[in-house]
Amino acid sequence: MTALAGIEGYLAPQGLAILGGFAATAEDDLPAGTRTLLMIGPDGPAFWPILTASGEWQDGAPDPVDRWSRRVIGRIACDLGAKALFPFGGPPYCPFFSWAMRTGRCHQSPVRLLVHDQAGLWVSFRGALALKEDVALPPPPPSPCDSCDGKPCLAACPPRALTGAGYDLPPCHAFLDTAAGQDCMTKGCAVRRACPASVAHARMHEQSAYHMRQFHR
């Protein structure tokens, strides 16, 4: 049985964390011999300074975040004798959404986005590790939404583009072009920021601004 703490020791210096995992089955269509799949994502604000100090960020070439993820998670996978899988580089793309739900640590939020027990609405994945060993995983806690007082995500979107009814893309983009929309452009989506579970895992504003620029070109 592979110890989870040992794997975390490879990830933490890179600003990465295990955001969930599950025991693989024959129906999962994973690489041959996979016994455990671990979902890997940014470890809160620790991630961004490490990424932006990297050669991938500074060389001016496209897709620095994906290239960094492929190098770093790929190297960790090699060290562990595992296979690295990524949510980019397809098609075909790996089913990260369904994998996230399989972990029991991600749930559908009131605004229908994935919400994580620790990362809240800031949850994102840079890759996954398919291991040939069994890894003992702690039981997942309940959804943070179950005990959320008032569910502020439902009323946080200024143009009401992201609500319990779902996501309406055109009003979102139109709002981001306004002066009022610069708060979301520079600090990240107001709905994600409103999630109480997101607070301890908050992104640096520079990270949110980068991703918002990629989203709203």
Average pLDDT, rounded to a whole number, is 96
User: What form results from the Cα inertia axes?
Assistant: globular
SSE series: HEEHHHEHEEEEEHHHH
Estimated helix fraction: 25-40%
Rounded radius of gyration (Å):
18 Å
The order of strands across the largest sheet is 1-2-6-3
Count of separate DSSP helical elements: 9
Largest sheet: 4 strands, antiparallel
Q: What's the oligomerization state?
A: single chain
Structural class: alpha+beta
Q: Ends: how far apart?
A: 46 Å
**Would you identify the regions where 5 or more consecutive residues have pLDDT less than 50?**
none
How many individual β-strands? 8
Q: Strand fraction band? A: 15-25%
Task: Name a few traits of the molecule.
alpha+beta; two-stranded antiparallel sheet; single chain; 217 residues
Short description, anyone?
With 217 residues, the chain is α+β, with helices and mostly antiparallel strands. Helices cover 33% and strands 15% of the residues. A hairpin with a 5-residue loop joins strand 4 and strand 5 (114-116).
Question: Explain this structure to me?
Answer:
Helix content is 33%, strand content 15%. The chain contains 9 helices and 8 strands. The protein has helices at 4-11, 47-52, 55-58, 64-80, 96-102, 169-176, 182-187, 190-194, 205-215, and strands spanning 16-23, 36-42, 83-85, 106-108, 114-116, 127-131, 162-163, 166-167. The protein has a 4-stranded antiparallel sheet, sandwiched between helices. A hairpin with a 5-residue loop joins β4 and β5. It is globular, with a radius of gyration of 18 Å. The mean pLDDT is 96.
